Amino acid sequence: MLKITEDEAHGCFVLEPVGSLRKADLDSLTQRFDEKVAAGGQVPNLVIRSPSFPTWSNFAALMEHLKFIRSHHREIEKVALVSDARALDVAPRIARFFVSARLRHFPGDALDEALAWVAVRGDIPPDVTLMQGLPDDTVGISVRGVIDAEDYSEKIVPAIEAALARHEKIKILYEIGAEFQTFTPGALWSDTRLGAANLSRFSKVALVTDIPWMRGAAQLFAPVVSGEVRVFRDKELEAAKAWVAEAPAR
């Protein structure tokens, strides 16, 4: 069964699979979606909320699902996957080869964050931005929104690995602003692996944030880092840039 709820406030359909999906479920979704578009309203984005990875009752249901994706993926701007199923961490990376809609995986208890994300339309700044104009041995990372494993694998990890290939030790400037929402479980695992493998090669780490728990976590884990760690307020970004540009204390 597929429960379909139209959320006008966020401009989306909330889809909640219960058990195996049937062909009739996908027929109903296609009909309601097409009726909404034909009525001249805004093309709805999709929020798929499922405790586990969805399954199909038979081959006909799977084919109907693929038919819906093929027919509508260029109209839909965003699809949010709200689930604790770890398999869905890689879904956005796989889906980008088949659909033009932007996909994000949110934790199972992050429905509100997913709804807020799909509600934002138009040209959206990336959730991870690499800062420009810093010294060659410094990687500056600015994050917003929801950070997932894809952000690490495609932006953060390559930037750090490239800097480490050029320098024995590097400096990290991490800006986590007010628009930051959460890390997915996959992102947290990626962050843990990245830190464990390279902590001894960070000569300086500057964290710029006003988020209380982030500031507390940085101070808690500072003794684990072999280099210097300093926490700055949002308004002190330029001071943080100046600090990381200085040579580490001997």
What does this structure look like?
This protein has 250 residues and is an alpha/beta fold. The longest helix is centred in the middle third of the chain and has 18 residues, at 149-166. The protein has two domains: 2-119, Transcription Regulator spoIIAA (2-Layer Sandwich); 128-245, Transcription Regulator spoIIAA, CATH 3.30.750. It has eight helices and twelve strands.
Present the secondary structure layout.
Blueprint: E1 2-7, E2 12-17, E3 20-21, H1 23-38, E4 45-49, E5 55-56, H2 59-72, E6 78-82, H3 91-95, E7 102-106, H4 111-119, E8 128-130, E9 138-147, H5 149-166, E10 170-183, H6 185-198, E11 202-209, H7 212-221, E12 228-232, H8 237-245
Parallel strand pairs: 2-4, 3-5, 4-6, 6-7, 9-10, 10-11, 11-12
Antiparallel strand pairs: 1-2, 8-9
Helix pairs in contact: 1-2, 5-6
Q: What is the name of the CATH class of the largest domain?
A: Alpha Beta
Report mean pLDDT, rounded to a whole number.
80
CATH fold name of the largest domain:
Transcription Regulator spoIIAA
Count of helical stretches: 8
Features:
single chain, 250 residues, alpha/beta, Transcription Regulator spoIIAA, 5-stranded mixed β-sheet
Quick summary:
The chain is 38% helix and 28% strand.
